[in-house]
What does this fold into?
Amino acid sequence: MKLNKYISVHKTSSKKIAEDYISKKKVKVNDLVITDIFFPITKNDKVYLNNKLIKKKNSGYILYNKPADIDSNSIPLHLKKFLKMFYNDDDFNCIGLDMGVCGLVLFYDDNKFDRLVNNIWLLFDLKFKNKLNNKQKNDLIKSMDEHSEINFIDDKNAAVKIQIKNQHKLFFMLKEFSVLLIDRVLIQNLDKFDISRGKFRKLNNLEIFNLKSLSASPYKSSGH
It folds into this structure.
């Protein structure tokens, strides 16, 4: 993002006012006074106006119910355009853009939330092509860390509760099986009850508060 736009987005709401501050040498990027209105700002830069740090405003959180064949390199064009506009030049993070996995994806630009991400709980629905025998079930159970849970609905279906920091272990183990479906149905307290496959929506303030509080009780509202 260019310096004039950064100041406009996060402080002045006006590029003209931002450019006036820059031209009058009132703006620093990290420790340097910058007079170039188009100076590129990176994610880790700190911008100061009159020696006061400009606090970055968060745009919000977007919940997307993705098909299994979508990953970071194949985001649908309409969603890609929306994210670029919503997050100011693609400055965002995400949970859940794994190829071969369908279900919930969370986009966000909140650096404070980044520190919580590894402890976020996920719930997956698994559907296997063939019936699992007792040995296969036990192998799956043993592959779980001590805090994760796996429940077998029947011989072809299971539900797994696991933290983000451990989900790679689950994906690795599932390579040993013929899996028809890996569906991420919960991200912490967020579900997809009102988001059909391929659709997305913005989280409201209460949902964001509950998510950041690591609440485990899904919040539903008829107001979406």
